[in-house]
Amino acid sequence: MYLSPTARISLLFLAIAVSALFFADIAITTANPWRDLGQFFLGVATPDFFSTEGLATALLRTVAFAFVGVALGAACGFLLSLVYRFYPVRMFCAFIRAIHELFWALIFLQFFGFHPLTGVLAIAIPYSGIFAKVYSEILEESDPGPGRLLPPGTGVVSAFLYARIPDCWVQMRTYTAYRLECGLRSSAILGFVGLPTLGFYLETSFSQGLYSEAGAMLIMFYVLIATIPLWVKPKLLPIYVLSAPFFLGEGMPIVWGNVERFFTEDIIPAPIRNGEGLADLGAWFNDLMLNEALPGIWNTVLLTQIALVATGILALLAFPLISNHFGGPVRRTSGHVFLVIARSTPEYILAYILLQLWGPSMLPAAVALALHNGGIIGHLIGRQTNTVLLRPDAPTGFNRYSWELVPRVYRSFLAFLFYRWEIIMRETAILGILGIYTLGLYVDSAIQQIRFDRAMVLILITALLNIGIDILGRYIRRKLALQTMPTC
Amino acid sequence: MSGFEFSGLTASFGGERVIGPLSLDVREGERIALVGKSGAGKSTLIKLIHERVDGHSSLVPQDLGLVNALPVFHNVFMGQLDAHAAWYNTLTLIRPFRKDKDAVRQLLTELAMADKFWTPTASLSGGQRQRVAIARAIYRQSNLLLADEPISALDGPMAHLVMKALSQRFTTSVIALHDVEMALAYSTRVVGIQDGQIALDEASDRLTAADITPLY
User: Fold this and answer.
1) Across the A/B interface, how many CB contacts are shorter than 8 Å?
2) Measuring CA to CA, which residue among A375, A386, A388, A369 is closest to residue A318?
3) Residue A59 CB: number of other CB atoms within 10 A?
4) Contact (Cβ atoms closer than 8 angstroms) between residue A311 and residue A385
5) Distance CA B205, CA A152 (A)
6) Most buried pick, A19, A32, A80, B22, via CB within 10 A?
7) Of B65, B70, B140, which is closest to A145 when you measure between CB atoms?
8) B55 CA: distance to closest CA in chain A (Å)
9) What part of B 56-85 touches A (C-beta under 8 Å)?
10) Which residues does chain B have within 8 Å of residue A238's beta carbon, measured at their own beta carbons?
11) Which domain holds residue A221?
12) What is the model's pTM?
């Protein structure tokens, strides 16, 4: 039987995910998961905006960290994009963006403590790597014609400002604004490791069972993200960026002795630090690989593959919700609301909520990843179907879906899915902090045992795994000639 | 530089020779019209000359090479980027100096474009875009003009206006034209290109439209 390459790769990934299900730990372990879920939804339906003054502070800090982190990341990323053609720079950028914001935060927490710098750098560093890549791609695609026409003797700076930047400006601005939205999500989840942003207050309310308070925070967060076009105006941006550093909060002072100790002692592998021989170092590394890295990698890969396919299925089911080719305005509006909520909620927060309600296993993590990523892809694909013009006598209902629309959007659907593969893996690793057995769990427990040497090796392994998946994802997209724009 | 003498001009595209080898000798003060049917190699020849003179010429390419996001003023100003320091150019992007604005406005008035001073070139019509590229070439103030179909999108009176302006501003020029009448009216010498070779090279006043037509 003939199968197109796209169908073959889809079936292959489906088969991998189904077999991964047999090895994965999928269970609901809480006694009364549906009652808890119901109480949570009741809390969201009856939000309490006035119970705590923390809410306003949490939002302010979340916005401040996002602005400072994204602005710093954009500035550094722009400078890096100018030298991005050099291989070491590309490798450096690939490496810093392969490490999740929360891992960066965990690292900086160890020596800067709860200083605002920890949160700012946790966002700025991985974002620099991403900005560098995307900016350089935008600059590369600009029309080379005007540059060739410049009089000989035109300076490099003038040539760049006149012949390059104007052509890319709109695209760079759009992408940066989009990243700001991602930055708000990153900033919110930094609270889960103790920084004073939304996640911190959310976790506090949740652990005390104050669902109405948690619901209010979530609703305010959605409002904040949905109203970005209203309050982020080009003219106001300089004011935001300049004033944001003053709203990061005091935090704790940096103890420079800790910084020095971290680099000269803490992250040196224990056997070297204690002056033991190479044999001991080998044993130390073996133990780390066998007992932590390998199980962590195995579970991370299992969950990633399951979540990837679940994301795909959800996206395919969800896109008709907002497509002009189905249903009336009422259905489409509720479809939009569902997808906005799914994609604006950081997967980490979704996973945290579901884990609280269903107990620790891969199931809540997979559902959270699928909801968030499926929401993003479903939204993009749904919007794409709105540009499709069907013939007047086109079939309706399920036939329209399966014969007219899915075949038309399937390639870009796959492109988005494989683009997000690496993002899903990065998130999967980090969800270990919440108690499922992916790499993040081992990193987190190594840090709690004050064994930073082990934590650093595990973070390094996570980064390499992400880079590997990124390369594989790009290889598949190139093989199938799939093109896409970056999403976060 | 205004006059030049090149020999052995060749260009290949995808392994296939599209131009030459041919020799071209242009003296200062000559206004050359390049004629020939499309695909004969006129555009390639103009690009070749532009490369050979190391960019020391005012070029109007067929695709114009405008920066669409910038307004008309900045696109014209780009003709003199080499004349100023980087800080001056950077400042001009944000807030142009009066003397530059006056100079560009005068030029645009001559080309009947003064009302589009701050319009981004992306929102101009084809003929207007063409005149912006021509204004940039004039603003460049080089002695040699290389232009590839500079009036293809202009109507009759406007085409004459532009050709007059070009002959006033440049002592030497090589202009590819498909309009035989215009070629004869605004040149001192006609060079006809056929299959990448020079098939006709004659002073304009010794030619009639009928002599050129066989090339098409």
Assistant:
1) 69
2) A375
3) 20
4) no
5) 36
6) A80
7) B65
8) 6
9) 56, 59, 61, 63, 65-70, 74, 78-85
10) none
11) 48-266
12) 0.83
**Which residues, listed in sequence order, are joined to residue B34 by a DSSP beta bridge?**
B176, B191
Interchain contact A162–B (C-beta under 8 A): yes
Please indicate, yes or no, whether residues A231 and A315 belong to a single structural domain of this protein: no
Closest CA to A189 of A367, A2, A348, A29: A348
Alpha carbon distance A414, A13 (integer Å): 11
Q: Which residues of B touch A157 (CB under 8 A)?
A: 86, 89-90
Contact A271, A284 (CB under 8 A): yes
**CB count, 10 Å around CB of A322?**
25
To the nearest whole angstrom, how far is the Cα of B105 from the nearest Cα of chain A? 19
Asked which of A225, A242, A266 is the last residue of a domain, the reply is: A266
**Ramachandran angles phi, psi of B6, nearest 5°:** -120, 140
Nearest CA in chain A to B57: A151
Going through A259-353 in order, the beta strands assigned E by DSSP cover none
pLDDT tens track for B182-198: 888 899 999 988 888 88
Read off the pLDDT of residues B144-172 as tens digits, 9 standing for 90 and up. 999 999 998 888 899 999 999 999 999 89
Half-sphere exposure of A182 (CA within 13 A, CB side): 24
Q: Which residues of B136-164 are buried (b: 16+ CB within 10 A; e: fewer)?
A: bbbbbebbbbbbbbbbebbeeebbebbbe
Q: How far apart are CA A473 and CA A462, in angstroms?
A: 16
User: Which chain B residues touch A146 with a CB distance below 8 Å?
Assistant: 65-67, 78
Among B60, B63, B67, pick the best mutation site for testing chain A contact (most A Cβ within 10 A): B67
The overall average pLDDT reported for chain A is 89
- Residue type for position A136: S
DSSP single-letter state for residue A147: H
Written out in words, the top-level CATH class of the domain with range B1-57+145-216 is alpha beta
Q: Is A49 helix (H, G, I), strand (E, B) or coil?
A: coil
Domain count of the fold of chain A: 2
Reduced to 3 states (helix: H, G, I; strand: E, B; else coil), residue B16 is strand
Report how far residue B33's alpha carbon sits from residue B188's, in angstroms, rounded to the nearest whole number.
Answer: 8
Query: Where is the domain boundary, A236, A266, A296?
Result: A266
**Same-domain pairing of A254 and A311:** no
Asked whether residue A39 is domain-assigned, the answer is: no
Between the alpha carbon of residue B74 and those of residues A167, A374, B132, the distances in Å are: 13, 45, 10
Each residue's pLDDT tens digit, A198-249: 999 988 888 888 888 888 888 889 888 888 888 888 888 889 989 988 888 8
Asked if A106 reaches chain B (Cβ–Cβ under 8 Å), the answer is no
User: Of chain B residues 136-175, which have a CB less than 8 A from chain A?
Assistant: 136, 140, 142
Tens of pLDDT, residues A457-472: 999 999 999 999 999 9
Provide CATH 3.40.50.300 ranges for chain B. Answer: 1-57+145-216
